[in-house]
Design goal:
alpha/beta, eight-stranded mixed sheet, 33% helix
């Protein structure tokens, strides 16, 4: 496989993530894989762009003029991606150094699979207390979560399954994975905890009422599609 064909595009959406973005970029670089890093700033109002400007010239930085929330920044990055593979990393999450290599190997060993996931290790950021929206068992052991930062996909996955639904400000991952399951898209799930999901006071999902509303909307949309398909 040529270096161009093996290129991995890493999309990092960020909104007011100045305190996290450097760690996210550096953990991509620590993968030691041929990657392009695409940072999509969703109209941050903090000093995110100032931090990004100090991180080197190898980043592609795209910016929304207006905060669109949720799926739009992901889609902007995916549309701009040039790699044969696309990985997503939320700006406040982290990867273990061998994540991309193991996921690429897993897909090469399963040529029919369009995407791969890893197990996820949840951790509390410093001085953060668990909220009612988090489950204590998440922190006991790695979880087989369907999480954006755990996703590594062939670029054709986003043709077969589609891009993220921009009507979803949250739960866009639930909606995407539901559509993948409905279409019986083959995938592989690595049992290794290669993704670390940070829980902190500014997580969007701390707004449990809004999160629950979008989650229920995603599940209802999936149920409606399945009903229509069986009619």
């Amino acid at each position: 496989m040529s270096e161009t064909a093996a290129l991995i595009s890493v999309v990092i959406p960020v909104y007011n993530g100045a305190q996290f973005i450097a760690q996210a970029v550096n953990c991509v670089r620590a993968q030691h894989m041929p990657t392009e890093i695409i940072v999509v700033d969703d109209a941050s109002t903090d000093h995110t762009l100032e931090v990004v400007s100090t991180l080197g010239d190898d980043l592609r930085v795209l910016r929304h003029d207006v905060n669109k929330r949720g799926a739009a920044a992901l889609n902007t990055g995916i549309r701009a991606a040039q790699g044969a593979y696309i990985a997503l990393l939320e700006c406040d999450d982290l990867w273990l150094p061998d994540k991309l290599r193991q996921q690429q190997a897993a897909l090469e060993a399963a040529p029919d699979a369009l995407y791969a996931l890893t197990y996820v290790e949840y951790f509390l950021d410093e001085n953060t207390h668990m909220s009612a929206s988090q489950r204590p068992e998440w922190f006991d052991q790695p979880q087989a979560a369907y999480a954006l930062s755990a996703l590594f996909a062939r670029r054709e996955a986003f043709t077969t399954i589609g891009l993220f639904n921009e009507d979803f400000h949250q739960a866009q991952d639930t909606d995407w994975f539901a559509r993948a399951k409905e279409r019986h898209v083959p995938m592989v799930h690595l049992p290794q905890p290669l993704t670390r999901k940070r829980i902190h006071d500014h997580n969007l999902t701390h707004n449990s009422e809004e999160s629950s509303r979008f989650l229920l909307r995603a599940l209802k949309a999936s149920l409606d599609r399945r009903r229509q398909g069986s009619s």
